[in-house]
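Example S7 (structure tokens).
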């Protein structure tokens, strides 16, 4: 059986900033470790390396136009695109926020 192709996954600076803010929030506000959420994030990256289209393109017309795909980790939504054989993670945003407007401002 042939091994599945492993796609490259890039975490863009905007998503890195989001992840840093999540870690800070867990540490300073919740006074707890953020390890579990980051472990889930790494598991999803492993999945995306093999199956980059496993998650659907978002249903919002604007996000659909730019081909944003989305999945959730706890209370966060991870937005990414798959193009040129590459997974590009753009943002990690709390599901409680008005994420569509935030993404339109990008």
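Recovered sequence:
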């Amino acid at each position: 059986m042939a091994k599945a192709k492993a796609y490259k996954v890039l975490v863009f600076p905007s998503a890195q900033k989001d992840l840093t803010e999540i870690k800070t929030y867990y540490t300073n506000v919740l006074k707890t470790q953020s390890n579990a959420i980051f472990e889930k994030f790494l598991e999803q990256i492993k999945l995306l390396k093999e199956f980059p289209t496993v998650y659907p393109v978002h249903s919002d017309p604007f996000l659909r136009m730019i081909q944003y795909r989305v999945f959730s980790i706890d209370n966060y939504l991870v937005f990414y695109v798959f193009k040129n054989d590459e997974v590009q993670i753009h943002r990690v945003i709390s599901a409680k926020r008005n994420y569509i407007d935030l993404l339109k401002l990008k």
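Notes on this example. The first strand starts at residue 8 and ends at 11.
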